[in-house]
Design brief:
The protein is built from 16 helices and twelve strands. With 409 residues, the protein is of the alpha/beta class. The chain folds into three domains: 1-94, no CATH class; 155-235 and 365-387, Nucleotidyltransferase, domain 5 (2-Layer Sandwich); 238-360, no CATH class.
Length: 409
C-alpha cells in the first residue's frame, strides 16, 4: 500500500505518513511528519507561541485498529519555552489525548457504554486500568459540558439504589418525560435531595409540577421545603409493595403456627414456593384455587389477601372523589381488622392519604426510576461492584442518562 493511500486512510490533520516501521500480523507502526510547519500550541497555557523551538522528539500514539491490527503512530512533537511561565512545554495536538488519538478514546467510551471495562480492554488490547482512566477522563469532560447546569424537569421521580453493602446508597433524580437520570449523588435522604433543589435554584423549583417518590420522609420534607407548589405523588408501585409486605408478614406468622401444629395442608399453601402465586396481581386459576383453600383453612391470611385485593379499587376509581371514598373505607377496615401489619399500614396510609390521591391529579409514577434501578443493578453486577463512587455516578449517567453515546449518534 502506498504511503499516500495510508495518509488518506488515517486522515490526520496536517500530517502525512513518511515511513512504515512495522507491518506484522498484529501490529502496524507508521511515522508521521507535518505537512507544513505551523506555530506550536503550548500544552501549558493552550496558546499559540511563535517562539524558537527548544527541541523535539517522537511520541508513540495508538490509533484505531486497521485490518484487525493495532495501529501505532510515531508523531514528532516540538518542545518550546512557554512565554507565560517560562517552562519548557511540549506542543499539543487537538487530535491526541495523551498516548491515544481522540477517536481511539471515543471508541473506548462507546465500548464501555455497552460492556464492562474488562471486556472492552480485552477487545482493544488494553489493561483494565488504562480503560478506566480513558473512560473516566471522557466522562468527566462530558459531565462538565452536559450535566451542568442541571436541566429542570416538569415531572420528576426520585429514588435511591444501593451501590455497596452496609447501607451505602446513591440517590437518582429522573426526568419522567425524558426518561433519563438528570442528577445523582452519593447517600440518600433530605440533605441529599436538598442539594438537587439548590442546584436548580428557586426559579427552577417553581417549574416542577409533580414529584413521584416512595414516600420516604426525607424526600417529602425536602420537596415541601424547596418546591412547595409541586404535588407529591406516592408511587402506586411502592404502595402495592407495602401491601405485599403486610400480607407476607401475616403469611409467615401463620406458617410458623401451622408448622408447630403439624397442619400440613395449610403449611403447603403458605409455603414460600406458593408466595409468588398469591402475590401476583393478575387473577389466575391457580390463584383462585389457593384463595378458596385459604378461605376454609385460615381466615386470617385470607382476610389479608382480601385487603390487598380491595385496595386496588382505589387506583381503579374513575376520579379522585371516588378514590377518596374507597381509600377512606379501606383505612377504617384495616385499622379495625386487628391484624397488626394492616393496622400499621392503615395508619401509614392515613398519614399519606393526600400523596396517594395526588396520583389522580398527575398520573405519574416512579416506574421509570425502578426500571433504571434495575439497569444500575445490572451495571454493578457486570463490573462486580465499584469502589469509586464518583466513577459509579458517572457510569449511571453513561448508561441511564444524557452521557449515553447513543444520544450523540
Amino acid at each position: 500500500m502506498e504511503l499516500n493511500t495510508i495518509t488518506e486512510l488515517l486522515n490526520i490533520p496536517n500530517h502525512k505518513v513518511t515511513q512504515v516501521i512495522e507491518n506484522g500480523d498484529k501490529r502496524l507502526e507508521f511515522v508521521l511528519e507535518p505537512v507544513s510547519e505551523v506555530a506550536p500550541v503550548c500544552s501549558g497555557c493552550g496558546r499559540i507561541h511563535a517562539v524558537q523551538v527548544h527541541s523535539w522528539s517522537y511520541v508513540i500514539v495508538e490509533d484505531l485498529p486497521m485490518s484487525g491490527k493495532r495501529v501505532f503512530l510515531h508523531v514528532r512533537k516540538r518542545k518550546i519555552i512557554c512565554s507565560e511561565d517560562g517552562r519548557i512545554r511540549v506542543e499539543e495536538f487537538d487530535w491526541i489525548r495523551k498516548r491515544f488519538t481522540k477517536r481511539f478514546t471515543e471508541q473506548v467510551y462507546r465500548l464501555t457504554a455497552i460492556t464492562t471495562n474488562q471486556e472492552a480492554g480485552w477487545y482493544l488490547g488494553l489493561d483494565d486500568e488504562r480503560v478506566y482512566r480513558i473512560d473516566r477522563a471522557i466522562l468527566e469532560r462530558l459531565a462538565e459540558e452536559r450535566l451542568y447546569p442541571v436541566s429542570v424537569p416538569k415531572y420528576m421521580s426520585v429514588d435511591e439504589v444501593a451501590w455497596q453493602k452496609w447501607h451505602k446508597y446513591v440517590t437518582n433524580v429522573v426526568d419522567i418525560e425524558k426518561r433519563k437520570v438528570i442528577w445523582n449523588h452519593e447517600d440518600r435522604g433530605k440533605v441529599v435531595l436538598d442539594g438537587f433543589y439548590q442546584e436548580i435554584g428557586p426559579e427552577g423549583c417553581t417549574q416542577i409540577e409533580a414529584v413521584a417518590s416512595d414516600g420516604a420522609h426525607g424526600f417529602i420534607s425536602s420537596t415541601k421545603k424547596h418546591a412547595p407548589k409541586a404535588l407529591l405523588v406516592l408511587d402506586h408501585f411502592h404502595v402495592k409493595k407495602y401491601l405485599n409486605d403486610a400480607v407476607d408478614r401475616v403469611r409467615k406468622e401463620e406458617l410458623k403456627k401451622a408448622e408447630r401444629e403439624n397442619n400440613h395442608d395449610l403449611s403447603e399453601i403458605l409455603h414460600c414456593n406458593k408466595r409468588f402465586i398469591l402475590f401476583q396481581n393478575k387473577v389466575t386459576q391457580k390463584k383462585q384455587d389457593l384463595l378458596e383453600k385459604l378461605s376454609s383453612l385460615n381466615q386470617r391470611v385470607y382476610q389479608a389477601m382480601l385487603f390487598k385485593e380491595q385496595f386496588l379499587s382505589v387506583y381503579s376509581a374513575p376520579d379522585r372523589k371516588t378514590a377518596f371514598t374507597n381509600l377512606k373505607g379501606w383505612i377504617v377496615a384495616a385499622i379495625k381488622s386487628e391484624i397488626p401489619s394492616f393496622v400499621e399500614l392503615g395508619l401509614k396510609f392515613f398519614r399519606k392519604r393526600h400523596y396517594i390521591l395526588n396520583y389522580f391529579l398527575h398520573k405519574i409514577t416512579s416506574a421509570i426510576s425502578e426500571g433504571i434501578n434495575n439497569k444500575i443493578k445490572r451495571l454493578k453486577r457486570m463490573a462486580y461492584g465499584y469502589k469509586d463512587v464518583t466513577y459509579f455516578l458517572l457510569k449511571i449517567h453513561q448508561h441511564c442518562g444524557i452521557l449515553n453515546p447513543r444520544l450523540s449518534t
